[in-house]
Design goal:
Blueprint: H1 3-11, H2 15-25, H3 28-44, H4 47-53, H5 59-83, H6 100-111, H7 122-133, H8 136-150, H9 153-165, H10 183-196, H11 201-229
Helix pairs in contact: 1-11, 2-11, 3-11, 5-6, 5-7, 5-11, 7-11, 8-11
Bound molecules: protoporphyrin IX containing FE.
Residues 33, 40, 43-44, 49, 53, 144-145, 148-149, 152-153, 156, 187, 215, 218, 222 line the site of protoporphyrin IX containing FE.
């Protein structure tokens, strides 16, 4: 088992005992958020993310981040096509979320064609493989983790970079959601969709566990990027 999955296993041992009762009657989206928020804090407070929000990062480092998340979105969005009619995952799939063409534009803006030869981190490869192969229920966890992040912290990162680099839209397409004019309303509706999914308690636990997996991949990715670019 990989280091990422081992960490999740260790962190979720007590989860069933802790939340099984609440999962029968409580809101899944609220529990999901509560139980994974310490992971969020680890991601948010990593040196690379802190530098990013402050715009205190090189273009090379930022391009590397985009190049690492790009194949993750390719996997998410390829599978979205296949899972459109899935009785569980089908509920969260919305074309307006798709990031692939926006990321391609930003990558070309910062690096021309050279971005295609940026080396993927081992964690990126593992993350992509996981997104490609998990069952549809667990796919929802990865979908939630990336897209709600983009519609939350992503918008703060956009503001940080815009100010630091004096950008005027170009290079920040990743954070543009032309079909989602109100991110807060969208996120509320998304959480409502999660709450309505026809899931057993065991399935809800599985979903929470997979969100932990998604966070751990992201934490490891930004840790490795910090090491590569910030020496942190
Ligand atoms: C690898 C990095 C990150 C990941 C994977 C991530 C993921 C997420 C996810 C999944 C949510 C939705 C939680 C929910 O409401 O159920 C969220 C919310 C949020 N994130 Fe992040 N995040 C990351 C980095 C950041 C950073 C750097 C910031 C701050 C600058 C940030 C600020 C926020 C805020 C304020 C919310 C709450 C938004 C709301 O309630 O609507 N995040 N994030």
């Amino acid at each position: 088992m990989s280091a990422v999955l081992e960490r999740v296993k260790k962190n979720t041992t007590d989860l069933p005992k802790k939340v099984a009762g609440e999962l029968e009657t409580g809101s899944l989206s609220r529990l999901l958020r509560r139980e994974t928020w310490s992971e969020h804090e680890k991601a948010e407070n990593s040196p690379f993310e802190v530098a990013l929000v402050r715009g205190n990062i090189s273009r090379e480092a930022y391009t590397d981040l985009l190049a690492q998340v790009y194949p993750v979105y390719c996997a998410l969005e390829e599978r979205a096509g296949a899972l459109r009619d899935d009785p569980i995952a089908g509920h969260v799939i919305v074309d307006d979320l798709n990031r692939k063409p926006f990321l391609e534009e930003d990558l070309a803006y910062y690096a021309g064609d050279t971005w295609r030869s940026i080396e993927l981190l081992p964690v990126t490869r593992e993350y992509v493989d996981r997104v490609r192969t998990v069952p549809p229920l667990r796919y929802v966890a990865h979908h939630y983790n990336r897209y709600l992040a983009d519609l939350s912290g992503g918008l703060m990162i956009r503001d940080g970079l815009k100010k630091a680099w004096n950008l005027n839209g170009e290079g920040l397409r990743y954070y543009e959601f032309p079909g989602i004019p109100d991110p807060t309303a969208f996120k509320d509706a998304y959480r409502g969709t999660l709450d309505e999914l026809p899931l057993s308690v065991a399935q809800k636990l599985e979903l929470i566990e997979e969100v932990m997996v998604a966070y751990e991949f992201n934490i490891e990715m930004v840790r490795a990027l910090g090491e590569r670019h910030l020496g942190a």
